[in-house]
Design goal:
The protein is mainly alpha-helical and 298 residues long. 73% of the residues lie in helices and 0% in strands. It has a single domain, classed as MetI-like (MetI-like fold, Orthogonal Bundle), CATH 1.10.3720. Helix 3 packs parallel to helix 6 and helix 3 packs across helix 9.
């Protein structure tokens, strides 16, 4: 086939790509693969180190027995820290996730670019970068000194302050990805804005909201400084967050890893593995729940 000028148009099919373009494509693919390997290598090394040194401590007694009071004492026992981690992190999630999601709904669906919305976004970004110890000191000054007692609820408040900006910003980004056509279709059927938001927008973004919330939970579960400041270092747990006898896995990792004894070091590795396992299990469960919820809504 020829053009009006008598010239044959170039063949742009994939079979006749130039050698330079093919080489550039292969080079970019190889570089991307190397970057993925470089990013995954530290994660794999950390996971292997924790698994190889912490798996030996796991047994039934590890999950139910009390923590030894003597650093030199051998034997498993991290039950109080496991229960304390679940209770304190769970309370922090109940305090921060609903508030964060509703705050993001206001920012994306109602506030838009209003002055109040811009101020909230700025403060959320600032809080995201604030060191965790500052949140612990804030709760210590504003709550612990007022009630004159360190307890698990104070630790939950500190972790909630850390989780809140992450939930707000991640949820807002997920809501922005929801197509406006869904909102317009719901409004065209006569639904009010709040009904559209609750029945259409939030279910469409549920998977991303869940992922963002789990990122916040994972960060809160591994925080040590706010727990030490607001809860203190102890080795027992009572099922009352307003009682001072509360501890978490992160606090026990710090407490045992700072000791030179082999038994304490083993407990620290075991506690680290347990914390990773808890976060991993909750992440998988949340993904399953979010995917099924989104399918039901469609």
């Amino acid at each position: 086939m020829t053009t009006l000028e008598g010239r044959t148009p170039p063949d742009l099919s994939g079979r006749n790509l130039s050698f330079k373009r093919a080489l550039a494509n292969r080079t970019a693919t190889v570089l991307i693969g190397l970057c993925v390997l470089l990013a995954a290598l530290p994660l794999a090394l950390v996971a292997w180190q924790v698994l190889s040194k912490g798996a030996s401590t796991w047994s039934l007694d590890w999950f139910i027995e009390e923590i030894p009071r003597n650093y030199r004492t051998d034997g498993p026992g991290m039950g109080p820290a496991i229960v304390g981690t679940l209770a304190i992190t769970g309370m922090a999630s109940l305090l921060s996730i609903p508030v964060g999601v509703l705050g993001a709904v206001y920012l994306n669906e109602y506030g838009k670019n209003k002055p109040l919305a811009r101020f909230i976004r700025t403060m959320a970004d600032v809080m995201t970068g604030v060191p965790s110890i500052m949140m612990g000191l804030f709760i210590y000054v504003g709550y612990v000194t007022v009630i004159d007692d360190q307890n698990g609820f104070a630790g939950a408040l500190a972790l909630a302050c850390l989780m809140l900006p992450i939930v707000i910003r991640s949820t807002e980004e997920m809501l922005r990805l929801v197509p406006d056509e869904l909102r317009q279709a719901s409004s065209g059927l006569g639904a009010r804005k709040w009904r559209t938001t609750m029945g259409v927008v939030l279910p469409a973004a549920s998977s991303g909201i869940t992922s963002g919330s789990l990122l916040a939970v994972a960060r809160a579960a591994g925080e040590t400084a706010p727990i030490i400041v607001t809860v203190g270092l102890t080795y027992i747990y009572r099922p009352d967050l307003f009682d001072g006898s509360n501890t978490t896995l992160a606090a026990q990792i710090f407490r045992n890893a700072s000791q030179p004894f082999a038994a304490s070091q083993d407990r620290a590795w075991g506690a680290a593995l347990t914390l990773i396992a808890i976060v991993f299990v909750f992440t998988i469960l949340s993904r399953i729940i979010a995917s099924r919820f989104a399918i039901d809504k469609r």
